[in-house]
């Protein structure tokens, strides 16, 4: 969201981003755009979503704006009704195929609610964009909307000289269900390297318990949450990046994780899934080893191959350097600005 907001502000748009204030939220950093956090009594579950949606709706009603943009499905209802009442344009920024996430699709009652919201309201959001061609095609097939594809890729910056690295394996991002930790952690028993986990999430406690169970406390280190700028200083030091997801629901199967491109931009070969969007890019630029399914033995064999085959590693690393010249924010930004300029032109007519 930081990249999107900065790009819009730099192009002359006035932007306000609204989020939630949690007890452990870091202080807001000074930005070019306006930031607002809504305080909530409930911290999770149905109470959280109900309170947030109600408070967000009433907050939006008193905003002077030309357009509202909801980020993912969990803010769609207040945005829709506020835009309807105020007769404003509404935009859907679909970072996820929300109803197809593992934590939703595996819980039938929760799935029914979010799927109802999705199939009822996404067709009413004619303006939108998402992170992969696969998700855009699914939205068109199921909801008859034509969404732009704007990938969430890093800003292209000069790459520092690549020196000999300590063989550290890095996972960055949310430590959530469906990210393969149940398979990655036992696989590390037979991998001669340390794994650093930068992030937090709903599977953090379970992941730490698995580390204890497998007696891997000296090999797997949990560093907690870091700001993006802090992560950018750590990623170049990694030897291998980890980007694993379970094939449960279409979201993981069709999406492109931010970390996939972050590893590419720092010339860090990675282990990821043989899913359509990753496979497509890897056929263009071989930047990763792909595995067909999650299992400790598949992960162990792939990591050891990357650690021990210097020729393979150097080839993937050089391909990362080529790929970063194609998949970067300066290119995606042009599509974002064009999208909002088209909306702006309809407002002025």
UniProtKB/TrEMBL annotation:
Residues 161-320 form the Glycosyl transferase family domain. InterPro entries: Glyco_trans_1. One of its GO terms (molecular function) is glycosyltransferase activity. Keywords: Transferase. Pfam families: Glycos_transf_1 (PF00534). This is Glycosyltransferase.
